[in-house]
Design a protein that fits this description.
CATH architecture: 3-Layer(aba) Sandwich
Number of strands: 9
Helix content: 25-40%
CATH class: Alpha Beta
Radius of gyration: 16 Å
Strand content: 25-35%
CATH superfamily: Vaccinia Virus protein VP39
Structural class: alpha/beta
Shape: globular
Order of helices and strands: HHEHEHEEHEHEEHHEE
Distance between the termini: 27 Å
Number of helices: 8
């Protein structure tokens, strides 16, 4: 994972910027996730890269039996603990080592978190371990084409970091570029069926988008 400490430094600005920005704009990534969620009644949900807990609140309201969250940032986890129903269900840690039992989760959700990982396959293996049979993975991640352009590289397979500004250019984040094949690797297809795939429209983007490139890649997968 690139720059594990970045949200310790920018967490407060990020939370403030996100709240203000989406107070007047539609959050298309959240809308995608909501549209693909199963009925959460009685189900256990894990939010990977849960940040300050805003999405966890949604899953709680939708009737999930238990909602867990994991994030690499201790600052974000402490902020999330202030607002969620079950603070003890939140963990500081990495997606490739999740402190939950085998087949203990029905739905895993990740909104703009997977692209921070250095290696996606390790996380996919861990997701498959903790998901129940036929469990769902619903994710929104930075689009590979967008990140490639942002690196300024002439080599699509490079591992250069992306640096971008969010929320009216007030917050800077960094993460590694990933190819489309990294998101949908042989390991991914060995563990999951791809159920649905979408890309962000260029309408009302969250960040500058002069070339009308899709800003995010969104998908739903089912455990094999």
């Amino acid at each position: 994972m690139v720059n594990d400490s970045q949200y310790e430094e920018i967490g407060a600005e990020f939370i403030d910027g996100q709240r203000k920005y989406f107070s007047t704009k539609t959050d298309h990534a959240r809308e995608f996730i909501r549209s693909r969620l199963p009925d959460l009644s009685g189900k256990a949900v894990l939010d990977v890269g849960c940040g300050h807990g805003s999405d966890i609140l949604t899953y709680e309201k939708l009737g999930a039996r238990e909602v867990y969250g994991i994030d690499i940032s201790s600052f974000m986890i402490e902020e999330a603990k202030k607002v969620v129903k079950s603070p003890d269900n939140l963990f500081v840690g990495s997606m490739d080592s999740i402190p939950l039992g085998d087949r203990s989760i029905d739905v895993i959700v990740g909104r703009f978190s997977l692209h921070y990982l250095s290696e996606l396959d390790k996380a996919y293996e861990e997701f498959a371990r903790i998901l129940n049979d036929d469990g769902s993975l619903i994710a929104v991640a930075h689009h590979p084409l967008k990140s490639f352009v942002q690196t300024g590289s002439r080599d699509y397979t490079n591992k250069d970091n992306v640096e971008m500004q969010l929320y009216d250019n007030k917050v800077t984040i960094r993460f590694p570029h990933h190819t489309l094949k990294e998101f949908f690797s042989d390991a991914f297809f060995g563990l999951f069926y791809l159920d649905y795939l979408d890309e962000e429209s260029s309408i009302d983007p969250e960040y500058p988008n002069e070339q009308n490139l899709p800003g995010y890649l969104a998908f739903k997968a089912i455990k094999r």
